[in-house]
Amino acid sequence: MLLWLAEYLAQFNSGFLVLQYITLRAIFSVLTALFIAFFVGPLMIRKLKQYQVGQAIRDDGPKSHFSKAGTPTMGGALILLAIILSTLLWADLDNRYVWITLGVVVVFGAVGWVDDWRKVIQKNSRGLPAKWKYLWQSVGALGAACALYFTAQSPAETQLIVPFFKDVAINMGVFYIVLTYFVINGTSNAVNLTDGLDGLAIMPTVLVAAALGVFAYASGHTQFASYLHIPYIAGSGELVVMVAALCGAGLGFLWFNTYPAQVFMGDVGALALGAMLGVMAVIVRQEIVLFIMGGVFVMETVSVMMQVASFKLTGRRIFRMAPIHHHFELKGWPEPKIIVRFWIITVILVLIGLATLKIR
């Protein structure tokens, strides 16, 4: 929005053309989202407490969680508000990737909101029934997949890029839609499973998003893309502004979500942020790298799958409790130790993912 205004004002003063630089708008975007989170956060927490929008704690969970009962949840709405407002202010609103990504954030955020509302306000422990939840997640993921596929302007936009190899690009054809569907849905649910401890999900989300911002900037720049042997995706650089908004909003939320948390993210935040990571990875053609950098999310998801499969097949559990962060809690690890160690693992995996830019 402000880019349009700057282009108009540039007729009278060329200094306004400075806002054409993505890097500058990204800086303003991260600061805007951060300040929105800082200023709106306390008000939102007070309102959530006032309306008793408190977290319910599982009886079979770690005993250390019982003290968290009643802590305000649905705080992810604060993150989404900051991301959306900052994006609308600083991003190029003529860019299709911006609107597709915003659409995914809104759809998955709405699904999470309804799920949280039914659990917390209506006291329905089931939340949104699984079939309806998956249906609307599928609508959002397929909508984004089809929009990206049918608006693709070059073959590179629908090829599967294999990291560590210069010239390995697999033409996906219509299977691109299938891959995109699973990446968006899978990442959305993986982040949601990870969101079980104070700050555990948001910091890895910020770290992975920041790395995807590097890929987006390089992919949207012809010279950088050519030098790094990655596909040139025209317009993908604008995602840097959205990544900056996510990072600012995430860090602002972490201010209130860090141990001991004043507010929890809830499905409204976790589902939307995971989907946002997924669609950005698809746009910059780095689905496999996302799998590497988001290793903590993958580990959490796989632990649940293994636990369920083992219990159904043998009647035994592999872990004391799944997702795996609860397993470590029941082994006696303090919550802050688990959180920080998972953050450190994510930093390492993100660096490995970034290394694929040069190791080819």
Description:
Helix content is 65%, strand content 2%. The model has no long low-confidence stretch (mean pLDDT 91). Strand 1 and strand 2 form a beta hairpin. The protein has 360 residues and is mostly helical. The chain has helices spanning 2-9, 22-50, 76-90, 96-120, 130-150, 175-194, 202-219, 222-228, 239-257, 266-283, 287-293, 295-314, 324-330, 335-355, and strands spanning 159-161, 169-171.
Observed structural traits:
360 residues; mainly alpha; two-stranded antiparallel sheet; 2 strands; 65% helix; 2% strand; globular
Which helices and strands, and how do they pair?
Blueprint: H1 2-9, H2 22-50, H3 76-90, H4 96-120, H5 130-150, E1 159-161, E2 169-171, H6 175-194, H7 202-219, H8 222-228, H9 239-257, H10 266-283, H11 287-293, H12 295-314, H13 324-330, H14 335-355
Antiparallel strand pairs: 1-2
Helix pairs in contact: 2-3, 2-9, 3-4, 3-9, 3-10, 4-5, 4-10, 5-6, 6-10, 6-12, 7-9, 7-10, 7-14, 11-14
